[in-house]
Amino acid sequence: MRKKIVAGNWKMNLLENEVIDYIQELEQLYSFKPDDVELIIFPSSIYLDSLINLPNYDLGVGAQDCSANDNGAFTGEISASMLASFKDEDKNEINYCLVGHSERRKYHNEANELLSKKVNQLIQNDLTPVYCCGETIEERNDGELFDVIEKQLKEGVFHLSMENFKKVIIAYEPVWAIGTGVTATKEQAQEMHQFIRQKIADKYNEEIAENTSILYGGSCKPSNANELFSQPDIDGGLIGGASLKPESFIQIAQSF
Ligand code: PEP
């Protein structure tokens, strides 16, 4: 059975005092999270340590990006091995990392070839890549949406062996829906999630496709999460704006 996941991408938001307040509020609300839903937070790297230090609950913690290189002279970058090195029996771990968020693709010119190297770094270090794919509005209007997503999958993650692909989570995030307040309709989202699952089945097999979690991202919020999450191929969400308040984040986790 694939996992139900609600993941919060904080992007470059929240100051230290706001993170402290967030954590306190989340601790109070955490018991309202359904047991069968995994909650993951992707904070700015400077706050990873605060989140993995949280006691007593099973929060998943992930980085928003990692280097495509092992280590060495890459100023400003964080390697997958550094993320993986935060292991301590008494702490949570960093288990996840976003790869290929549309903001990285757009503002940092990250192309599929580079992203595939990041995916490899994460897999080698036993971390789960959350691989983001999505089309722009022009690509959708030109009818290229399926080709674009297929190319992003082929070049970013389909080089992996069957065993390694099992560790990957996919996030479908139509670029036109991210941070715009415009959400894909449940039909549009389901259509693409089904397409992605079929492509995974074609490349690997039906069982792997059935077990891969595919998250929807793009202006998902408490008022629309339920209709999206009730679609058969949508296994949860990658949430930007609405994850910045613990209350709405937990409400989304209750929306299956
Ligand atoms: C995101 O950044 O991954 C995202 C989905 O943002 P938002 O929910 O704000 O559209």
Entry summary:
With 256 residues, the protein is of the alpha/beta class.
Structure notes:
With 256 residues, this protein is of the alpha/beta class. The protein has a domain at 1-12 and 42-67 and 77-210: Aldolase class I (TIM Barrel), CATH 3.20.20. Helix content is 41%, strand content 16%. The protein has an eight-stranded parallel barrel with strand order 1-2-3-4-5-6-7-8, surrounded by five helices. The structure holds phosphoenolpyruvate (PEP). The site of phosphoenolpyruvate has 14 residues, from strand 8.
Topology:
Elements (H helix, E strand, L loop, with lengths): L3 E6 L6 H14 L7 E6 L5 H5 L7 E4 L16 H5 L9 E6 L2 H6 L4 H13 L3 E6 L3 H5 L3 H12 L5 H4 L3 E4 L13 H18 L2 H6 L2 E4 L4 H8 L6 E4 L6 H8 L3
Helix pairs in contact: 5-7, 7-9, 11-12
The structure holds phosphoenolpyruvate.
Name of the level-1 CATH class of the domain at 1-12 and 42-67 and 77-210: Alpha Beta
Query: Taking strands numbered 1, 2, ... along the chain, how are they ordered across the largest sheet?
Result: 1-2-3-4-5-6-7-8
CA radius of gyration: 17 Å
Order of helices and strands: EHEHEHEHHEHHHEHHEHEH
Structural class: alpha/beta
State mean pLDDT (0 to 100 scale). Answer: 96
Task: Record keyword descriptors for this entry.
8-stranded parallel β-barrel; 256 residues; alpha/beta; TIM Barrel; 41% helix; globular
